[in-house]
C-alpha cells in the first residue's frame, strides 16, 4: 500500500508553514505543531479529486498535533495503514490505527495527534453530495446534520466489508481507469456513499422498506434503461425517473427479477454490444470502439463479463460474424 496514489503527488516538504498551508487547501484551515523537540517534518501528500469524493494519502514523518477548524462542507474518513492517530472529541478520545478507522462529521470540534510513523489513507466526502445521496437513497430528508459514530472497527463484519471496498477503490483511484469516466466515477462514488449509510452507525432514521415497489414503477425503470442504455446512468438516475428511492429500486429489482438494477443494465448493454459486433462484421469497427460506445470503459472486465454471458469473447463474436459474412458472399 505504500505506493497508493503515487501518480498524484501534491506535496513533499519539510517546511511546517508550507505544509500547513497546502494541506489546508486540500482539507481545511488548521493549526499544525510538532509534538516533540528535535523533530523535523518529512511530509508527503498524495491526492486525487473526484466529484463528491477525494482520495488521499498523508504522512508527516514526525509526531504532530493537528487542531482543525470544524468542517463545514465535508466528512473525513481516515484509515491509518501504518502507525496510529488519536482523535480527541468532546465525548472522549478515540484511537485509530490499521484496525480502526475514523469518520469525522461536519461541525464537530476535535483535535488529532499523529505518531511519527503514521501513514494514512483518507477520503474527503463532500457534504452536499452525501446529503443528496441520503435523500435519494432513502427517499426522505435528513434531520439536521447527518453525523456518524466516529470509529469504524475493521475486526467486525460490517467494518470488514467496508475495508474490502476501500481497498478496491483506493487501488482503482491509484492505478485504474474508472475515475476517468464520468459515469463510472459516479458509480464508484455512489457505491461508497451507500456503504457508509448502510454499514455505519449514524444519527438518521432509516425508512422501513418492507413495502415492495409497485410493478409499474419497476417497468418504468426498465423502460428508462432501455431508452438510455448507452448513456452514463447510475442507480439514482433510474430511481428518480421511476419515482422511487434508490433503496426501493434495489428492493424491487431483487424481488421481481432476482438481480440489482445495475446488473440488469449491464446485461442490456452486453446484448447491445453483441448485436453491434454481429452487424459490424467485415467493417472497420473494433471491439474497443463498440465497447466504449455502449458504456464499457474497463475493457478487461468487459471481456470477462461478455464471456460469462455469451460463452465467447467479443473478438470471437466479431470474427465469427466475419466468417459467416464471407461464407454467405461465397455461396452467392
TrEMBL record:
Q: Which UniProt keywords apply?
A: DNA-binding, Transcription, Transcription regulation
Q: Which InterPro entries match?
A: AraC-bd_2 (IPR035418), AraC_XylS_family_regulators (IPR050204), Homeodomain-like_sf (IPR009057), HTH_AraC (IPR018060), HTH_AraC-typ_CS (IPR018062)
In terms of SUPFAM superfamilies, this protein maps to: Homeodomain-like
Report the domain of life of the source organism.
Answer: Bacteria
Q: Coiled-coil ranges per the record?
A: none
Does the record's keyword annotation contain Transcription regulation?
yes
Q: What sequence ranges are listed for the domain HTH araC/xylS-type?
A: 219-320
Q: Does the keyword Metal-binding apply?
A: no
Name of the featured protein: Helix-turn-helix domain-containing protein
In its UniProt entry, the species of origin is given as Mesopusillimonas faecipullorum
Amino acid at each position: 500500500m505504500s505506493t497508493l496514489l503515487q501518480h498524484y503527488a501534491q506535496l513533499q516538504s519539510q517546511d511546517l508553514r508550507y505544509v500547513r498551508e497546502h494541506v489546508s487547501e486540500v482539507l481545511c484551515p488548521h493549526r499544525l505543531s510538532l509534538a516533540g523537540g528535535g523533530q523535523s517534518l518529512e511530509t508527503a501528500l498524495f491526492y486525487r479529486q473526484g466529484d463528491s469524493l477525494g482520495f488521499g494519502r498523508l504522512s508527516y514523518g514526525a509526531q504532530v498535533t493537528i487542531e482543525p477548524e470544524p468542517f463545514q462542507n465535508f466528512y473525513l474518513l481516515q484509515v491509518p495503514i501504518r502507525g496510529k492517530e488519536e482523535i480527541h472529541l468532546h465525548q472522549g478520545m478515540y484511537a485509530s490505527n490499521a484496525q480502526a478507522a475514523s469518520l469525522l462529521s461536519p461541525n464537530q470540534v476535535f483535535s488529532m495527534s499523529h505518531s511519527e510513523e503514521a501513514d494514512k489513507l483518507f477520503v474527503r466526502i463532500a457534504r452536499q453530495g452525501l446529503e443528496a445521496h441520503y435523500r435519494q437513497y432513502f427517499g426522505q430528508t435528513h434531520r439536521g446534520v447527518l453525523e456518524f459514530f466516529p470509529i469504524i472497527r475493521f475486526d467486525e463484519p460490517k467494518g470488514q466489508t467496508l475495508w474490502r471496498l476501500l481497498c478496491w477503490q483506493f487501488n482503482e483511484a491509484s492505478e485504474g481507469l474508472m475515475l476517468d469516466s464520468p459515469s463510472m466515477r459516479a458509480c464508484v462514488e455512489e457505491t461508497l456513499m451507500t456503504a457508509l449509510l448502510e454499514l455505519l452507525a449514524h444519527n438518521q432514521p432509516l425508512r422501513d422498506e418492507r413495502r415492495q415497489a409497485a410493478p409499474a414503477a419497476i417497468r418504468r425503470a426498465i423502460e428508462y434503461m432501455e431508452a438510455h442504455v448507452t448513456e452514463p446512468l447510475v442507480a439514482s438516475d433510474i430511481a428518480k425517473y421511476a419515482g422511487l428511492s434508490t433503496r426501493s429500486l434495489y428492493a424491487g429489482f431483487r424481488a421481481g427479477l432476482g438481480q440489482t438494477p445495475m446488473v440488469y443494465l449491464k446485461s442490456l448493454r452486453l446484448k447491445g454490444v453483441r448485436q453491434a459486433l454481429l452487424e459490424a462484421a467485415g467493417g472497420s469497427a473494433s471491439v474497443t470502439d463498440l465497447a466504449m460506445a455502449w458504456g464499457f470503459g474497463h475493457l478487461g472486465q468487459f471481456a470477462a463479463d461478455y464471456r460469462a454471458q455469451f460463452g465467447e469473447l467479443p473478438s470471437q463474436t466479431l470474427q465469427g460474424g466475419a466468417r459467416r459474412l464471407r461464407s454467405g458472399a461465397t455461396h452467392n
